[in-house]
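ugh ok fine here u go
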Amino acid sequence: MADTEKSKSNILLTIWTNTENILYKVLFNRFTLIAFYAFWFLFGVLVLRKTQNAITAVRYVKTHGESVSLSSIEQSREFADLIKTLDKKFPRPPAIFLLNQYALNMTDNFLCNTGTLEGVHERFIFVTLDTVARDTIRKRWPEIQQFHWPTPSLYKPFSFAEGAYQTIYLLRSNLALALIKKGKSFWMMQQDTFWRKNIFDMNYEDNMEYDAIFDQLGSEEESSMRKEWVNGANFFIRANNDTQLFFERMSEKLAHWYTPDMGIMIQQCHTWKKPVCAYIPHNVVYSWEWMFTEQKDPPYLMQLDCETDGGSKLMQLGRYGFHFVNQDGSCNEQKVSIAKAKMENGTVEVKMTKTLPSWGRLQFKAYWYIVDYMLWTPIIGEYLKPYLAMIGFILMITI
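structure:
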């Protein structure tokens, strides 16, 4: 009798165990199926969103392109005045920066940083896109030259990969082309950059072995897949027929394609024999990725471009120790010195406990990881290298 009861108990236990296993398998399979469909649904939504954003951005550029066209610049009194200023006050090539009123805080922070370096501000020319930016810079930094180009399509704040973002780079390309046609060599630079030292001391514009020299992505490691990929934030262009053609083609593409300007620069530098492109070493100019390396060989310039939202960028940079404006608007030179010292000592604080990673930086890190593996692929990667960045806006479906 006891054996019978024990046998019944074992049978019931076996049935329960089997039922439980089946239930787990059903639930797991159902969860897997739901996760599978949810992933592709989300992916499809992001693709549709990106498609709409691309169409909107290209339409925006086509609608407002005339206001930043080459002909409008060349035929303007403002450009004629700029050329006179260059002839009279700039024995060395100028550094060109663009801004509207929503970039004033970042610009002020940048000028506080660079104001500690002798003679740097004398090389700057600011392209102010609205009267607020013009008047503020004129009042706050009267010694800095301006090229005022009021552009209603660029009056509002904008972020990475939007139509206005494309438009401002079309303006930059056309302005570069107008300067080249007048025989003026120049630097193009951006304000979201920390200057530890004066890059002009390197005398890159005196080296006649190349026609253009660009900052670059990736790292100085030989294994870096993005070495000699143009970053496009800080570069020098020598005026000649080859660089004129370079920017003519770039303006044509920016006017019609949904693509980052640096992607076009990469494609043309890697597939054209002329102009001769060179690359600034990483120990002179590095992107924000330097902070997440071992922080050795601190660069002269570090571009702090890891944020896609201009409104939160300065706040994020403050967490890293790169905010130099006091509450009363004055410059805090001590903070500039501290930031320089931290770079030189390799002690820029980037730990998660102190500076939570922003959404913008997380996205960039993820996309660079994907890009590195695509470029690492044998044969295919080498073929993709000149062209992959041109479809960067399209591939970055979360932005």
